[in-house]
Design brief:
The complex is a heterodimer of chains A (209) and B (163).
Chain A: H1 4-26, E1 34-38, H2 63-73, H3 85-103, H4 117-126, H5 133-139, H6 157-173, H7 178-194, H8 198-208
Helix pairs in contact in A: 3-6, 4-6, 7-8
Chain B: H1 21-34, E1 41-43, H2 47-56, E2 83-85, E3 87-92, E4 98-99, E5 102-107, E6 124-128, E7 131-132, E8 139-144, E9 153-155
Antiparallel strand pairs in B: 1-2, 3-4, 3-7, 5-6, 5-8, 8-9
The chains are: A mainly alpha (209), B alpha+beta (163).
């Protein structure tokens, strides 16, 4: 009986030949790790950062969990074409919740619904002042309205809400380029109000609202 | 007689006395099969792989390190030929980090090892990455089953699903 060391080289050569034959049959070199590159939709959070995500999402997720995902986990209600009446209220709550999260007014929420730097910067500088009246009063000066006299004729706190609505629309429709357009429209409204052109000002206010 | 130190306290207790090298070998092989490739690999089901596993797991383990009387010890390494890397992970294109993504795996019609449930037919399986895929030769396509990610579908070519 030969010793073990005599067989080790034979076995290793056999394994190498077998692997080479398999690879030649496959035509490709199979990767050691299969990897899928996925891209998250804007307005959605990943499961790992979703506070409503179930801790143990098993392999066999049935329709019950899918409905649960539809109602609670997806923080983007615009994805649903026709929400039913039963969940419409919940969708509205999620809409307000998403606005607050994107705007950064909620503490300890580092959810990333969008990676666009323009939207992120806009949310940080203009939409996080709603919770604080002091900040909103100071930032309303940026928009030219002052505390009680805004170009749209609304209160200064509404400027922050208007910014959040604009931000929400841009995130929801995945159109960050629309944000400068909204800002230009707002600036035009401001100019019309300052130059005392009521007709153009009213029409533009209606468009912006 | 070769005595090995077992790192598992339960195995080294008085009620479970391990004396032979074959016992250690069987235990270490079973642990290796269980955590094969760090959970990213599994055993193939092809005929060649089954033959390699039969040669590797022949139930006649040696008594000592130079015991080649009934089974050649180098043949214990043949289980390597049955390894297939089926570990699947999903990477976010924006962040580059591993993410949890629900997937829907469509199997071939000839596959009969899955049980049909109330909501999922037998030819489809819902999995969540990171996970182990079924044998690649049984998969027809893999698609994303989540609204949070852009829909995509990967078809497994026949040439790539040999083992």
């Amino acid at each position: 009986m030969p010793r073990c060391t005599d067989f080790k080289s034979i076995i290793s050569i056999a394994i190498f030949k077998c692997n080479a034959r398999r690879r030649s049959e496959c035509g490709i070199l199979l990767p050691a790790r299969l990897c899928l590159i996925v891209k998250r939709r804007p307005g959605y959070s990943s499961f790992s950062r979703d506070p409503y995500a179930p801790p143990g999402m098993g392999c066999e997720t049935g329709h019950r969990e899918k409905e649960y995902l539809r109602i609670r986990h997806v923080l983007a209600p615009w994805a649903h074409a026709q929400p039913t009446n039963s969940i419409r209220g919940r969708v509205r709550e999620l809409e307000n919740e998403l606005i607050a999260i994107v705007a950064g007014t909620r503490i300890n929420d580092n959810l990333e619904y969008t990676a666009d730097p323009l939207l992120v910067t806009f949310s940080r500088h203009f939409c996080d002042a709603v919770a604080s009246n002091r900040h909103s009063a100071s930032r309303s000066q940026i928009w030219g309205g002052g505390k009680n006299a805004t170009p749209l004729g609304i209160a200064s706190s509404s400027i922050g809400r208007w910014c959040m609505r604009v931000l929400y629309t841009c995130v929801a429709t995945d159109q960050p380029t629309a944000l400068p357009l909204y800002i230009q429209l707002h600036y035009s409204a401001l100019v019309f109000s300052l130059t005392r052109q009521p007709r153009q000002w009213l029409s533009l206010c209606a468009v912006i609202k | 007689m070769v005595w090995h130190t077992v790192s598992f306290p339960l195995l080294s207790s008085q009620s479970c006395i391990i004396q032979y090298k074959g016992t250690h070998m069987a235990l270490q092989m079973s642990i290796g099969f269980l955590f094969m490739g760090g959970g990213r690999a599994s055993l193939s089901r092809s005929k060649e792989s089954i033959a390699a596993l039969l040669a590797a797991c022949f139930p006649r383990f040696p008594k000592s390190i130079d015991d080649n009387q009934y089974h050649l010890q180098p043949l214990r390494h043949l289980w390597v030929m049955a390894v297939s890397w089926r570990g699947l992970k999903a990477v976010d294109a924006d962040t580059g980090k591993d993410v949890v993504v629900p997937l829907l795996v469509e199997l071939n019609a000839c596959v009969d090892y899955t049980a049909e449930t109330a909501h999922v037919p037998a030819t489809k399986r819902r999995i969540v990455t990171p996970c182990l895929l079924p044998p690649l030769k049984d998969i027809s396509c893999v698609c994303i089953n989540s609204e949070r990610y852009y829909p995509n579908k990967w078809a497994i070519p026949r040439s790539a699903a040999v083992y």
